Structure formats: C-alpha cells, structure tokens
Amino acid sequence: MRTIRAIFIKQARDTLKNRMTLVQFIIFPVMSFIMTTLVAKPAEDTPDSIFVTMFAAMFAGMTPLMMTNSAIAEDKEHKSLRFLVMAGVKPSQYLLGIGGFVLLSCSFVAVVFGLIGEFSGLELVKFVFILILGSVASVVIGATVGIFSKNQQAATAIGTPVFMILAFLPMLSIFNDTIRDIANPLYTQQVRMIVNESDMSITTEPLLIILANIAVAFILFVLAYKKRGLKA
Q: Using an 8 Å Cβ cutoff, are 98 and 3 in contact?
C-alpha cells in the first residue's frame, strides 16, 4: 500500500507541474459547455446533452490514455521505471499508483460533464460510472503503450494513432454502418452508446465488451512490464 501511495503522490506532483497535461482535462469540458450553450440549447430539435455525451466519450478515450502513456514513458526516459522494477515493484502496484491519480482526476471531470449536461440522481451516477469504466480501459492501454515507448517522443508517436482510433471511430460510426460494425468491439463505442441512452438500465453486452477490453489490455500491460520494464 505504501508503494502505491508513493507512486500516486509522485504522479500527482508531476501532473501539477505540467501545464500541457492539465489542459487535457480542461479542453473537452470547455468545448462541451460552449457547444451546449451556443448550439444545443438554442436549437429546439437538438437534444441538450448531445455535445456533452459526445465530448465526454471522446475524453474517456483520449485523455486518460495520453496522460498515462506520457507519465510511464517519462519514467522510462528518466530511468525511474528501471529502479522501480529492480526494487520489486509489481506491475499492479505501479499501474494502481499511476492510474489511481489519473482516474481520480477523470472522476472529477466526469462529474463536471454531468453537471453541464444537467444530469441528476441515478442518471448522473450512471453517466459518471460509465465514463470512469471507460477511463479505466484507457489508463491500462495508455500504460501498455508507455511501456513499449523508449521516451516521451516515441510515446506520442505510438499513442496518437491509438487514441485517434479509439476516440474518433465511435463518432464516425454514427454516420456509417460499416464503421459502426468495426467500432462495436471497442470500449469507446460502448461508452458512447451507453451514455446516449436515456433510460437508467445498462445492458449486459456493452459492459462485458468494456470489461473484456480492460482484461486484454491489462494482460498486455503485465507482459510488457515484465519484458521491457528494465529496458531504457
């Protein structure tokens, strides 16, 4: 527990020092607020929450992934990860330390999205829960990409096409049935579909797809950590 807490605190300090990282948590809610206020609400035939759900799903697919990816690549570049592995830090401890702070930050942003969308009660709880679940998948995928990256520059090069696919493919699937079929196995597609549903129920299939994404990503992370954690 002490190890996880130490990594959590380290990540919090590193994030607060990095303004570009903080911008990632601000830009999507701001865009959501502007588009909701200026476009959705004045238009009678447009649902008030359309931009909230769209930008929230994109946020869950991009920001946690980018942040975790960058943090781990930085640890590799500065040799911090090498020392942690040599000290006996387990993959799960390292991931919980880094990912714990990212998920806590994402939770606050998810609530902000919910307030912009004027969700309340169980509707807000469902909305926040699904965004956090999607963020968990993004954190694990970002961690895996970070482990395979030699430095932050490489992390950006590898991570960019990954989060572009995860974030924008579900949005494009709205307009094309073929793209929708391709995007269905992705957790970001399931997150988008669930947050767009007006009722409080969550069907089993979308949840299983999201959980399967998390499980596969975690297995890949553990394998990558054990294989490349000591390599600069």
A: no
